[in-house]
Amino acid sequence: MPTLTNSQEPDSYNIDYYYSKYKDWHGVGLQENKPQALRVLPAGAKPDFCDEKKTQHYFKVPLQPSITTCFCGKFHTSFTSQHYKISHPTTIGQPQTPTNTTVSKQGFKKAEELPASPISKSIN
Fold first, then answer.
1. Per-residue model confidence as pLDDT tens digits over 87-114
2. How far is CA 42 from CA 18, 114, 118, 121, in A?
3. What phi, psi does 67 have (nearest 5°)?
4. Domain segments of the chain: what residues?
């Protein structure tokens, strides 16, 4: 589950799965009252901010494994890959590419859940 940014370590999601099924899609999101899972946003959705009124938070899926925050910086999560490994601590930051589209509440409820990463967290 995505965690608040003041938490130590976020859960991991499989970036390989996302790009194998949704390579031309733009992001994932969560509802604040149900942060257990990220949901894949509809294909045309390109949010560039979180909707704090509706308590919906959005993430741009990175092109490579990294720790990513939602646009408002309240939640963060880790995207992992079986093909790449993050070998050093990454800093939490927002995506560089600005986009501008709103996400409908109806499309968000019907979205598919992004599965957890099959890669376990390494303990140092």
1. 545 555 555 544 445 555 555 555 677 7
2. 13, 13, 24, 29
3. -90, 130
4. 3-109
